[in-house]
Amino acid sequence: MTDTQPSKTVFDGTGLLKKRNIVSEIRQAIKEMKPCLRRMSVFLVSIFNEDGMKMIPERCQNARLQLVKIRECYSRLTTIVPENEYHRFRNLWRYQTVRAAHLVLLIVFLETGTLCSRKEFAKTIGVHDDQMERFPINNEEYLNGLINMVSDLVRYAVTCVTYRDYETPVQVANFVIKVSKSLNLLRQKKEGLRKRIRSLKFDVKNLEELLYDLSLRNHLKPKHLGAEMMKNQD
Amino acid sequence: MADRKKRGGGGRGGNNRRFDKSHSKVAKKSDDIVEDSPLIRAFISYRDELNDNYDRYERLYKISRDITIESKRIIFQLHLVSTDASKEKILEEAKTRLDKLIKYNFADLAKELEGHSRYQYVRAYTSGVQEFVEAITFYHYLESGTICSWNDILSQMTYHVSSGRKDSVQNEESDTVKSDDMSDDKLSESENKEEMNQSVEPIGEERKVALFIPDWDFILGLEDLSGELMRHSIKCVSSGRIEETFKACDFIRNLYTSLLTLTQVHNREFFKKLNVMLQSLLKVENACHMIKLRGSEVSQDLLVHMIGTFNTNEDEECSYD
Q1: pLDDT tens digits, residue range A90-100?
Q2: Considering the entire predicted model, what is its pTM?
Q3: What is the ipTM of this complex?
Q4: Which family is it part of (chain B) (predicted)?
Q5: Which of A92, A101, B81, B206 has the most C-beta neighbours closer than 10 Å?
């Protein structure tokens, strides 16, 4: 099936061929993005040990360097994907976007202690936030990344306690509780997302137990505890 | 039929109301949490977007189901052609029903989809479109013995046209469709159309809503058509129109070979349906074989009986695989 003589051959596969070319180009771009994401996560995984915990800003900086390449890959994807056909190929890079969201949100939390909104995240990786744009950032991918990041945070809080940092867990717990509250605002229609959000409950529970253990042993300063209680009442 | 339509419409309205209710519930919830933190605000906007997506998907799915049901009924009606004498009348009625589908149900689809990314909601209405393709191609087969061009169908699905040009959405893969037209002049005709269609965005001065349907749906619908043709051809044997059976057999065979040449395909459903298509083709071929071999020896009734038993054996074998 060649596209040399479309008028004569009964089957003209140019459309199919075109689609295949687009898919292979997208695969190529994603292939280049993967190692960057992996390197980023290597830097960030180091927050789960004692040495890494002390140099979080440096680690975040290192991880952020990888974003340059990732942004480049996304801009390439933007040009590859034809106008109006974003949703046709979305599945191809879905996993990568979730992963990128996970890592970027984690970096932002470690740096500032706040949640990186979808808009900021879209800006970070160089795509659009507006759903009507040619290459928008999908809600579900962002939310899945967020939930992944939250389960990482639980692990982070546990590590903090292990190495006798009793203040960070309180911060983390406040944050996670707020996030899980906000996630419950969503109508959870799709099975995948609903399951993930439900699993968040256990993360919250783990954090609460952690705080309970800390307060039982008088490790929490009253200031923190007070703040925690206030937040919970909201 | 009018009654049915009405009921369908009522159901749809009722459901819309239900959607609205859930909306207001959610809205109340968010009023309870009067936290004006940016976090909550961001999530409320995400929620609204997701709700919008889900609801639109649901509405599209409903329309698609209406189309499926009506298409199935049309196909059932078309099957009467093989036994009834009044072919013209049946075809005429089927035509009006098909036109109605295009005029109302597909218009609803197009309106609902307007301004949204093309492939976003494709999954919601694919089944309806496939069934519709099955119905309309079956109709065309009975009427003219060929397959209608996909471009012709699509060009009917452009609504609110006030400018002169009638081209619809781009359909890159629709050239594959032509293969199934067995006539050459039709082929070149759609070729020209294709060229015209390319790169034409349906945004003019006047508002113009073109329905986008991925060409996949057409091909998958064609594969379903083979099943209907098989039933049709077997029925034709029983009503004594044997030449019709041979015609259908040739037609399915041609369709099958042309679909086989789609080598660039990575679509699981395509191959599944292709397999089913082969099964129906075998059935028709066996029927033809029977007619040729023993047609002169036995009476018509017995022949029908024989083909029936032959095919049921075939079925059992298949199920054991």
Answers
A1: 888 999 999 99
A2: 0.71
A3: 0.74
A4: Belongs to the translin family.
A5: A101
